[in-house]
Design brief:
There is one protein chain. With about 150 residues, the protein is of the alpha+beta class. The chain folds into 2 domains: about 35 residues, no CATH class; about 90 residues, K homology (KH) domain (GMP Synthetase, Chain A, domain 3), CATH 3.30.300. The chain is built from 4 helices and 5 strands; from the N terminus they run βββαβαβαα.
Length: about 150
């Protein structure tokens, strides 16, 4: 396979709610009331955490057989820290984004602990979403289109 281009579109709706589409799928995101939203959906930071967890699950499923790992269940718990003063107030020295993401893999398996830890390292290395977060990706604004 070669390079695949993925596309998405996000559209601001009422208040802070945002409707995002990719292909035939649509999700609604919002902010919690504590961040001035109406809490009608996950916020984008939660969606990022979900994307990371989902990607790790998919990598686990795709490569388990090749890595000689069998599991009955696989899930990922994630959490991240965001300083709202960096986001809402733009305070100097504070990032507007997550300062740290922590996750725990839960794997129901009869495989040895050592082999499972090697598999966890493999998942982290091969996960595209993890790669974007850890190594960064250049974000280019192609244009600003004004409409009347």
């Amino acid at each position: 396979m070669a390079i695949m281009t993925f596309k998405a579109e996000s559209r601001l709706k009422d208040g802070l709610s945002v409707e995002s589409t990719a292909g035939k799928f649509t999700v609604l995101m919002d902010e919690p009331e504590t961040l001035r939203g109406t809490d009608t959906g996950m916020n984008p930071v939660e969606m990022l955490l979900c994307s990371l967890g989902a990607c790790q699950c998919i990598v686990a499923r795709l490569f388990a057989r090749a890595q000689r790992i069998e599991f009955e269940e696989f899930r990922v718990e994630l959490e991240g820290d965001l300083d709202t003063d960096g986001f809402l107030r733009g305070r100097d020295g504070l990032r507007p984004g997550l300062s740290e993401i922590r996750y725990t893999l839960h794997i129901k398996t009869g495989t040895s602990r050592e082999k499972v830890e090697d598999f966890a390292a493999f998942i982290k290395k091969r996960c595209p979403v993890s790669d974007v977060i850890v190594n960064g990706t250049n974000i280019l604004q192609k244009d600003v289109v004004t409409e009347t």
